[in-house]
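User: Can you recover a sequence for this backbone? Please restate the input before giving your answer.

Assistant: Of course. Working from this structure:
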């Protein structure tokens, strides 16, 4: 239903060229609101009018209604609280939104189909990382940015649209969107999506090692930075309720909100730790959707991936082919071409991701975890896990304890290597 509404919005608006919005703020500087106040205004405006404005239109209306200030008071994050998803959302909601900077640095794209936001629209001087939420009641117009965006679904379910292809995502989905990638985010009011933005230059400097190998992650980032990017996005899954991920996210969001000395450097380090944590567990299972020339093929790939994710324990290539009315050989080739992985690699990657979550967050026996993720033989499961992680399930469980996270965080700040950290942990 939500997707149908979204398509209707797109049709009615005609994806029309938007008029420039810079200069809407009437000569006033540094007018701000907070993330929560902006979301509340958008919600109230939609309930009253049934209209979803653009962000520029919403900020202009808030200024005319004297709902912007210079700047609003922002509560500091409490370092003593327990790490929960709710507390992460509270910290994000308290963050300022600089209306003046956004409106002065946002303009229609050359194609007239999306708004392009420059780095100056979202990054305060001297900051390389910022965090906000994806607002639920904005218009369905496409957007693209000069910087990298990492979206993390903290609550509920929603959809992202890339080149017209709907991508359903749920809690724990991590979506990396390269610069200048037009997309639409459809987030209902009961969902909460964290949007982490990083300057392109900072990403290049901090993650250069991701571009040096021949795996699909390296290819994705290399093409995003320097080539003609045929990949719309990269999608992974993280257990946002687990100790490792939750702690990392909490510290990342807290440092982005902080004005303490070295807060920018620390927020960059926590971003590296967060992505490293996700990459480490999903190096073989990240889903990359390539820009297909055939619109119907692109749409099918998105639906096929969703089907596999929902049925990964028992899905077979033959049943998948029947479900989508494809020849098995053709389907296998299509998945390889447009998703960068074979059918077997996709299924194995999802199974390993689920296994990692159980190993990190539960005390279930290895035999039970093997059965839960779809393996009939615990020996087969253990061999597969070791071949993809270079360690046994038992060793992985030990590595992902809280002690391991603390050691990883300390080593990242000090610039120590992961190999040295693993050696220390073993000792």
């Amino acid at each position: 239903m939500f997707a149908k509404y979204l398509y209707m919005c797109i049709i009615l608006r005609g994806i029309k060229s938007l008029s420039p919005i810079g200069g809407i703020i009437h000569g006033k500087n540094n007018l701000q609101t907070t993330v929560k106040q902006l979301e509340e205004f958008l919600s109230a405006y939609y309930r009253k009018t049934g209209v979803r404005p653009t962000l520029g239109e919403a900020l202009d209306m808030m200024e005319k209604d004297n709902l912007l200030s210079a700047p609003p008071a922002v509560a500091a994050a409490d370092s003593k609280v327990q790490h929960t998803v709710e507390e992460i959302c509270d910290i994000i909601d308290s963050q300022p939104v600089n209306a003046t900077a956004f409106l002065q640095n946002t303009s229609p794209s050359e194609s007239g189909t999306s708004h392009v936001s420059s780095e100056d629209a979202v990054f305060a001087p001297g900051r390389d990382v910022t965090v906000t939420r994806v607002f639920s009641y904005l218009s369905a117009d496409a957007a693209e940015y000069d910087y990298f965006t990492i979206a993390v679904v903290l609550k509920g379910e929603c959809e992202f649209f890339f080149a017209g292809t709907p991508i359903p995502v749920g809690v724990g989905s991590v979506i990396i969107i390269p610069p200048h990638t037009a997309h639409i985010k459809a987030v209902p009011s009961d969902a909460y999506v964290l949007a982490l933005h990083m300057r392109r230059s900072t990403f290049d400097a901090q993650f250069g090692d991701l571009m040096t190998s021949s795996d699909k992650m390296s290819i994705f980032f290399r093409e995003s930075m320097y080539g003609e990017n045929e990949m719309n996005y990269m999608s992974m899954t993280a257990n946002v309720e687990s100790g490792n991920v939750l702690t990392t996210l909490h510290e990342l969001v807290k440092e982005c909100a902080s004005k303490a000395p070295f807060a920018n450097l620390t927020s960059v380090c926590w971003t590296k730790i967060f992505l490293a944590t996700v990459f480490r567990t999903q190096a073989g299972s990240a889903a990359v959707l390539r820009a297909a020339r055939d619109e119907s093929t692109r749409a099918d790939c998105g639906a096929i991936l969703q089907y596999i994710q929902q049925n990964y324990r028992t899905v077979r290539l033959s049943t998948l082919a029947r479900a989508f009315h494809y020849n098995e050989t053709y389907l296998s080739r299509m998945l390889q071409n447009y998703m960068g992985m074979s059918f077997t690699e996709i299924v194995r990657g999802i199974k390993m991701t689920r296994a990692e979550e159980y190993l990190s967050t539960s005390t279930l026996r290895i035999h039970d975890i093997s059965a839960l993720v779809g393996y009939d033989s615990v020996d087969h499961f253990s061999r597969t896990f070791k071949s993809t992680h270079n360690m046994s399930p038992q060793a992985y469980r030990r590595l992902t304890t809280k002690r391991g996270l603390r050691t990883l965080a300390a080593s990242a700040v000090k610039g120590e290597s992961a190999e040295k950290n693993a050696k220390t942990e073993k000792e």
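That completes the design. The chain has two domains: 2-282, 289-399.
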